[in-house]
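Mods, move this if it's the wrong board.
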Amino acid sequence: MRLLLVEDDNHVAAALSAVLARHGFDVTHARSGEEALQALVPEGAGFGVVLLDLGLPDQDGYEVCGKIRKRTSIPVIMVTARSDVRSRIHGLNLGADDYVVKPYDTGELLARIHAVARRRVPDESAPPGDTGLRLGPVLIELPTRQVSVDGAVVQLTRKEFDLLALLAQRPGVVFRREQIISEVWRTSWEGTGRTLEVHVASLRSKLRMPALIETVRGVGYRLVTPTP
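Not the wrong board. Structure tokens:
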């Protein structure tokens, strides 16, 4: 995914760009509001997410967000030291998709980036009616929240389905534990780790495919596409 990082502090931008690159992002760094707006021409320039710091040297970050939203529907995550509710509401009213307060946890930031990217309108090039994810013998039907293996329906709980659907959207990609907890349980990592392990074990058992979800030690989990 291409990501536009709007940050006037070169040291902060370099450190964050390195982290994002390690997680598979193609990062373009803009140092001002005007530079960011130019980078988004024409029609978003292929970026998947804009990470917008509000403390910019040439324009107010809120103003930049409003201009971005008038030009494109690309998800915008505001990054700021302002933690008051009024500032957050103002940013969201201008069209921001999410709001991260400094200092933030890198795992949380990555989870929020992936979350807003998935909320975008589906690719119009996708075949009409193509609302399922096929992984070898496993079929995940998103509208009906139904999962089947070799045509046989497997009964999953709501969280089991959400967990499987999350991993299945990007087979082979490692999802950090913190990211999974944030997106499936909508909470922080503390105290929820054991719950995640239990749900992974349950999915492996119900699907009768223990190798489908691979544990990446010290990081998280990824879904392994079954071979024919």
